[in-house]
Target: Thiol reductant ABC exporter subunit CydC
Amino acid sequence: MSERTESSESTGSPAPLAVLRPYLRLIQGLRGWYALSLLLGLVTLVATVGLLALSGWFLSAAAVAGLSLTTAQAFNFFYPGAGVRGLALTRTAGRWAERVVSHEATFRLLARVRVWLLARLFPLSPRQVGVYHGADLLQRFMRDVEQLDGLLPRLALPALALTLGLLLLALVLGWALPGGGALVPLTLLALLMALAPLLWHLGQPSSRAWVARRAVLRRRLIDAADGAGVLAFHASAWSAARNRALAASTAALHAQWQHERLGAFARAGAIAVCGLAAWATLLLWGGRVDGPLLVAIVLLLLGLAEIAAPVVTGLAELPAMTHAAQRLDDITGQTPDVIPPASGPQPVDGTVDIHGLDFAWDAHTPVLRGLTLQVPSGAHCFLSGPSGCGKSSLVQLLARFERPTQGQIHLGGAALDDLDEATLRRTLAVSSQFAWARQGTLADNLRIAVPDATPEQMLQVLALVGLADTVTAWPEGLDTWIDEGGQSLSGGQLRRLGVARALLRQAPITVLDEPTEGLDDAAAELLAERICAWNVGRTLIWISHRPQGRALFGQRVDLARDPA
Ligand SMILES: Nc1ncnc2c1ncn2[C@@H]1O[C@H](COP(=O)(O)OP(=O)(O)OP(=O)(O)O)[C@@H](O)[C@H]1O
Model:
């Protein structure tokens, strides 16, 4: 688990509301959808409370009218009955339409947020992304984004609809209840508004714990599942991993319980406040206004609880939303280590010119010091050196995933920093030391390098790395399914697939990091021979701590001795 992720969870101060700003900005393009949703929410609110009020009035007025035959005969049952049916239908249709519209807006917003996040994640260097545990990154992209999707439909819009509804009610009650009737909904509004800062304050610890602990739970579970194959050999480590996952689960459930408890109290508080308003109205205006009208108003105020409860639940969610936004801000707030120019010079050939290169992963441990190396265009260079001398770090620098602390790299006469992204990737093909395959067919994995590669071209490079016979013997050949991360391939096959992918590119400069790992000496020698022949006229940098194939290379550099 990364230090960074762990620390951002254990020591957070209250997340400021300002972290929600980027998401509110993304909402701007969906204003029409949200305005429609607000309108439908208002219609539903009016229909809901109107239905309760009218039904209450209807029942009590009918009861009063039934006291004598004359009034019973004169009472008009038809219009109120039609009104009740109309309001009930409006309420159902309004709620349905409001849900459809707000869900549509939310899905559109989710898509926007995820695309926006990905656009900020991709320019980051592997080191910047690597500080996040894979499970944690997924949690941020999925669960934390989902937490934010309620910002408008579950909080802002219902709160706005309720506020407008209460103001409207103030007008109605000002007319219906003489002597300060408008004060009832206005007091209700003030009380609900006072709940907001209280819930914000009270919700901070539990929501921070809930957002953080569910992320820890996911990491622990994925750690245990990923490591099961290894941990199962070590009984105590395996039971420790399970216990850690269990403890994380217990802690996450406890935090969720505390978080939900606050929401439940808030809901109960809102219902109680509406109930108190109804009682107060009954006590203050009982006997002063028409009985059925008073019943209607009391029921109307009780009905408001149905609208106010979800609003305060949304308010109780606000701290969790800001904590989720804060976790996303950890990613989006980063400045990429390398910002490539939009356009730049074109390399004229495959020369690699490294001059006075210094590099360190951290301030205390220099990895490369004053490395100077010139590989002429079309030359084949064998780069060796003991483990840890910085061979793979040099690959990271050539690929521009990292920046040197000093010195310059030129490719084809152009400074690496000046190359635009597409030109750099076109110029340089790299097979990294860490082999990887994505879930998909073998052909899918090769087409990562060249999307329109033909089966013949793919088999050609597979033959170079000694995989063609194996692949053609598989019943599905190039269409053989490869499991996530290349798990269905042997270590050596996976490594050679990575090399084949780089070779398929036929780029002016090819860099292969430890391509012979996992091969016996004879196979390693043969691989070097074939790849040198394939790259005739193109620059090849072969990085290996093994001597096999060394004699085939015109240029031989020992990184531990030659530089500095
Ligand atoms: N991503 C990284 N973050 C921090 N330190 C790193 C990282 N990658 C490598 N290092 C450190 O940099 C130093 C050089 O590592 P590097 O992988 O470049 O060596 P190498 O010569 O390729 O070794 P090997 O032959 O074992 O692959 C090592 O001390 C290593 O711990």
